[in-house]
Specification:
The complex is a heterotrimer of chains A (285), B (267) and C (283). With 285 residues, chain A is of the alpha/beta class. Chain A is 41% helix and 23% strand. Chain A has a single domain, classed as 3-Layer(aba) Sandwich (Rossmann fold), CATH 3.40.50. In chain A, strands 6-7-8-3-9-10 form a six-stranded mixed sheet, with helices on both faces. A four-stranded antiparallel sheet of chain A has the order 2-1-4-5, covered by helices on one side. The chains are: A alpha/beta (285), B alpha/beta (267), C mainly alpha (283).
């Protein structure tokens, strides 16, 4: 049974009724990494937020189910839902700078969840935090635990956030464009770290990104989104061997491929965009 | 008319470190650029690549004389502009322009698009300003009606185009593009780069393109310099750099690019 | 979606109507005081002392809000008092804003030595206890409107300077300022064209708050009899007088208090309302 199963999830803006997610279905097996790909505004972040229960106030869910380990989260009372999500899921956010409280030390921010939600003793939580910082290959874990966010580099902050995400051994982690704010060399290190930890801890991973190159390195399956609808849902291998949908093919053509002698970076043609938009809107109502 | 538009020799720059400033007395200086040499030929597109902290953005600002180097020489179209005072630089300013990384902070949120593009034109005494603004908007592929919009009414990609329109409206000889696609997603990136490519060709621009991502410079740039910690570690024509990178750091940058091929895992 | 920003401006909200309405009423009253006040505010008639407002028992027609212990009409005094209140608000508020915002702008954008000097000045200045300062000033200059205005300006300009400096510094780091530099604008031109418009919304809000403060300071000073030396009515003076007869004639204290409260409230809401309506950066 898949660990996370989203079925027919739809969401829209409360005020204008504009659809943000259109009948989205996907599933992630335990220990598997699933990519959510699309351009900005396609709704990929929204799905992650819906699963974690942190949708913005202006957005409401209009239908569908989100099953975590068999239980439909949307059918639960809010307090129970928060408890389950808090115990079983975690987020690796996009911007390491704004995701950390600048007035608190790193150690406290990692152990928060362990002490507050899972009831660990502070001493045990701190020991676990130190072990995790080791695992994410931070040079001086003790010093980092006592440090404030602004004393660390962007890459170190992201490592600390990854440590925090894995702290409570969640079954599912949502990574929301975790390397967009990082340099290309740091990105490589962080992605390899995430992939390694995911494999080691057997965590299911929902990986949101706009970069197809990144997806090919981290995920085994993926969904491509456009304007809130899933355009293609397949394995990574099959996708890169030959994408089916013309929009997905155009996205692939727009992705850097430096080793090839012919240059890349062809913009997605207008005709393709018009076609996919028409298709998406035809599916409404 | 010099053959090379920009020539830099041994540029050094140190900036005061305000974090380490003692209560009395000046702040200690940190050397950011350790003697940079480069040449940009007329009509060339130079890629300046490096990770954050390499000094590439600082170098860009020195080339535009937004910052004054402590040592070395900088020539623009044969003229030595290393230590020119601001007043003397002003007429030259029309010939060198810049496009910025963050479309949010590079456009004044309380001015309309038309005003933003027209600003520099009035300053340098150009005539027929509305016509020039319209032409700039046409050239970047934005509808003329955008003249009356405010920046927050546009998308990120559209704001970036306004930044480009502002830069080309003055018809400069040289443009510095500082990480202009770093915040955009893949498809918008491709669009902006294609636009820039077309403009370089049609307007005969000379371009310096700063980026931390080698894959982005491949299509656009004729030459590339790779920077690390304030120094140039490699310089070559683009094709040569990608075919046979010499410096270890360049190889590291190339290897870090995630190629969309699941059969090629990162080593 | 080709609407212009002007077409999408929010409608003039209730906040703006109410605050603008009250202040317009006040301004009209102040301007036309000699003609619309039902009685001479200085005319005393002990026979008509302590008359209650018109809806209560024992009132005399024509004295709408009653009279004070010297038989002077409360409403007329209220209307005339509005003059002082508004003059102080506009002049003192305006000058404070001008001085403080200018220094703050210079310090925040030019940085360097200019900032050093101005910031030190602000720090030292803020160390003076404001109330003592104003009393000292009045003692030196002599009581009167000038003293009040000068006192308010000298005390409160630092508030503007601090805030505007911080905003100007933040603005100075923006790329559009660098862009203007590259375009070849002079520093003065950049300050006025790029930075000032972005600092203005804050200044407007602070200004309206300052106007409210000015009215209260004047009321305090006239409460302690350090305001204008003549018999002209001021709200603070009326409150002071009303204090002594609060049990026999509560209306002498209450009405000027209400007027003061509404005016200060109106000023602050006006600032917020103006910002909401006219700032193009609609969130």
């Amino acid at each position: 049974m898949s660990h996370l199963e989203v079925r027919n999830l739809s969401a829209r803006l409360k005020r204008s009724g504009a659809p943000l997610l259109r009948d989205v279905s996907l599933s992630v097996e335990a220990g598997q990494a699933h990519g959510l790909v699309g351009e900005s505004g396609a709704g990929k972040s929204m799905i992650g937020k819906a699963v974690l229960g942190i949708l913005p106030r202006a957005v409401e869910i209009t239908g569908g189910t989100i099953r975590l380990d068999g239980t439909d989260l949307l059918a639960l009372p809010p307090a129970e839902r928060r408890r389950r999500i808090g115990a079983g899921c975690a987020l690796i956010p996009q911007d390491p700078l704004t995701a950390l409280n600048p007035s608190r030390r790193i150690g406290g921010q990692i152990t928060d969840r362990l002490v507050d939600i899972l009831g660990w003793t502070p001493a045990a939580a701190l020991a676990r935090a130190r072990a995790l910082l080791d695992e994410v290959q931070i040079a001086d874990p003790d010093r980092t635990l006592r440090a404030f966010p602004h004393e660390l580099s962007g890459g170190q902050r992201q490592r600390a956030l990854i440590a925090a995400a894995f702290a409570a051994e969640p079954k599912l982690i949502v990574a929301d464009e975790p390397t967009t704010a990082l340099d290309v060399t740091v990105q490589k290190q962080i992605l390899r770290l995430i992939a390694r930890m995911q494999a080691q801890h057997g965590t299911a991973l929902l990986f949101v990104t706009h970069d197809l190159g990144v997806v090919s390195k981290v995920c085994t399956t993926l969904s491509v989104l456009y304007a809130g609808r899933v355009i293609e849902d397949t394995t990574v291998r099959a996708f890169f061997a030959g994408p089916h949908h013309p929009y997905a093919a155009a996205l692939l053509a727009a992705t850097p491929r430096c080793i090839a002698p012919d240059t890349s970076l062809l913009p997605v043609p207008e005709a393709v965009i018009a076609a996919v938009r028409a298709e998406v809107e035809r599916g409404d109502g | 008319m010099a053959e090379s538009l920009i020539v830099a020799e041994g540029l050094r720059l140190a900036l005061p470190d305000l974090n380490a400033k003692p209560l009395f007395g000046p702040a200690p200086r940190i050397e950011i650029l350790h003697g940079i040499d480069l040449t940009i030929a007329r009509g060339a597109v130079l890629g300046i690549v490096g990770s954050s902290g390499s000094g590439k953005s600082t170098l860009g600002r020195v080339l535009l004389r937004l910052l004054e180097p402590q040592a070395g020489r900088l020539r623009f179209d044969g003229e030595d502009i290393t230590h020119l005072p601001e007043r003397a630089l002003r007429p030259l300013r029309a010939r060198m322009q810049m496009i910025f990384q963050d479309p949010m902070s590079s456009l004044n949120p309380r001015r309309r698009v038309g005003g933003i593009i027209a600003g520099p034109l009035g300053l340098h005494g150009r005539d027929a300003i509305p016509a020039r603004v319209d032409r700039a908007l046409d050239q970047v592929g934005l509808p003329r009606s955008f003249r009356d919009r405010y920046p927050h009414e546009l998308s990120g990609g559209q704001r970036q185009r306004v930044g480009i329109a502002r830069a080309i409206a003055l018809e400069p000889d040289f443009i510095l593009a500082d990480e202009i696609v770093s915040g955009l997603d893949v498809s918008s990136q491709a669009q902006v780069l294609a636009l820039l490519e077309g403009l370089v060709r049609d307007l005969g621009l000379t371009l310096a393109f700063i980026s931390h991502d080698l894959s982005v410079v491949r299509r656009l740039c004729s030459h590339v310099i790779v920077m690390q910690r304030g120094a140039v570690v490699e310089r070559a024509a683009t094709a040569a750099l990608f075919a046979a990178p010499e410096a270890g750091y360049t190889r590291e940058l190339l290897a870090a690019i995630p190629l969309p091929d699941p059969d090629q895992p990162w080593t | 979606m080709a609407e212009t920003a002007a077409a999408r401006r929010p409608p003039v909200g209730l906040r703006l109507w109410l605050s603008g309405g009250w202040l317009t009423l006040l301004a009209t009253a102040a301007l036309l005081a000699p003609w619309i006040a039902p009685h001479n505010p200085l005319a005393q008639d002990l026979m008509l002392g302590r008359l209650p407002p018109v809806w209560m028992e024992g009132a005399e027609p024509g004295y709408w809000l009653g009279t004070d212990s010297l038989g002077r009409d409360v409403l007329s005094r209220l209307i005339h008092g509005a003059r002082i209140a508004l003059v102080v608000a506009l002049v003192a508020g305006g000058l404070t804003a001008l001085l403080g915002a200018t220094l703050g702008l210079l310090a925040g954008y030019l940085r360097g030595r200019t900032d050093g000097v101005i910031s030190r000045l602000v720090d030292i200045w803020m160390a003076f206890p404001p109330v003592l300062f104003s009393i000292l000033l009045v003692a030196v200059i002599g009581p009167g409107l000038t003293a009040i205005v000068v006192a308010i300006v000298l005390i409160d300009w630092t508030r503007f300077a601090r805030v505007v400096r911080a905003e100007a510094m933040a603005q100075g780091a923006m790329d559009y300022v660098a862009s203007a530099q590259i375009a070849g604008r002079s520093r003065l031109s950049i300050m006025l064209a790029e930075i000032l418009p972005n600092v203005l919304p804050t200044v407007v809000v602070l200004l309206t708050l300052e106007m409210g403060i000015a009215v209260i300071v004047e009321a305090i000073l006239s409460f302690v009899n350090l305001s204008i030396p003549t018999d002209d009515p001021t709200w603070g003076g009326m409150i002071a007088e009303g204090r002594t007869s609060i049990h026999q004639a509560w209306w002498v204290l209450v009405f000027p208090l209400i007027a003061l409260f509404l005016t200060v409230l109106a000023f602050s809401q006006l600032g917020e309302g103006l910002k909401d309506r006219y700032d193009p950066v609609l969130r």
